[in-house]
Amino acid sequence: MGINQKMYELGNKRSIIREIFEYSKKRGAEIGAENVYDFSLGNPSVPAPKEVNETIVKLLAEKNSVLLHGYTSAQGDAGVRKTIADKINRDFNVGISPDLIYMTCGAAASLSISLKALIAEEGEEVIVFAPFFTEYRVFIENAGGKVVVSTPMEKTFQVDVADFASKITPNTKAVIMNSPNNPSGVVYSEETVKAVCDILKAKSKEFGHPVYLIADEPYRELVYAGVSVPYLMNYYDNTLVCYSYSKSLSLPGERIGYIAICPKMQDALPVYLAVCGAGRSLGYVCAPSLMQQVISLCLDAQVNVAAYKENRDLLYDNLSAYGYECVKPDGAFYLFVKSPVKGDAFAFYEKAKAHEILVVPCDDFGVTGYVRIAYCTAKEKVLGALPAFKNLAKELGL
Ligand code: PLP
Asked: Quick check: 340 and 319 in contact, CB under 8 A?
């Protein structure tokens, strides 16, 4: 009797991003880390807001340490969930109650729990819009679902509505929408959101059961130049929002986020209870207690988004001028660049690597021929990399 082969394979197979990260460390030891332009990881480079650290110190000094570090309710502290519900209602006016919020260890847990709660039978389909965060495949399959990829519009990388409509079947249980998007940086426009939601409403009616919409929103606050991100609950009732403070407060290692269920969902209470059950069955109960308190006291804190915008502008403007074809990102901290090497992402990755530039080939993200540049780095790294990008462009004849 062997161990679970699927899990073994997941653990044994290093992701391409991990491979590049390991290479970056090795190369840095050889030529100096400052000479390696590593744009592979989506780890925030901007520090957490000052008030977050101050709040941690204050809580440690002032609160009863047994309570502070103790278990909360499985779904999260009631007071914390109230502050989050109030914040959601202030910002988006959806009338949510704390009893439709479930605290989690970040968006990865929020997604895993939501999928586990919704997928009733092996093989139910979940549609993802390419390009998509590669871990979706792992989360969906682990919950017993089947991944169905909807291909995007060329150049804009908005949803191709006709393609999306053709992918929905009576077996579709849910659709995941991630905006601002990893890896394209695209924010789905209100027009796109409305079109997607109209199709979801029509199909749910036709099939006689809801097709759920899962909004994956770790980058909601990272947007540039006044772009706003439509709040999906305001467009479609059967929505679950998977939120995380990993990027919005630069706290990825602290593992804190939540699931919010739209109060107008037709079966909101059973879905919430299924979320509680899925959290229980996966062992995702009682999200980090200290962090629950911290975020509830820092809900209006913001990271310095201007620093990401500066990097975005430097890279987008200069790379476009050098002749690269880039998707203009309105949010997150990723730039999606078309491979100028016969549309081959891996070949472009190798060519860039020879110039000490490390980018991520994105074929696994559901779109072939593109690489991702994660510009959540120091500005100096971006400035240092520009001449290398320019030389590479010359070498490639752009
Ligand atoms: N969803 C997307 C699109 C992401 O890019 C990430 C992390 O990079 C996650 C979910 C997981 O985030 P968390 O750290 O909150 O688990």
From this structure: no
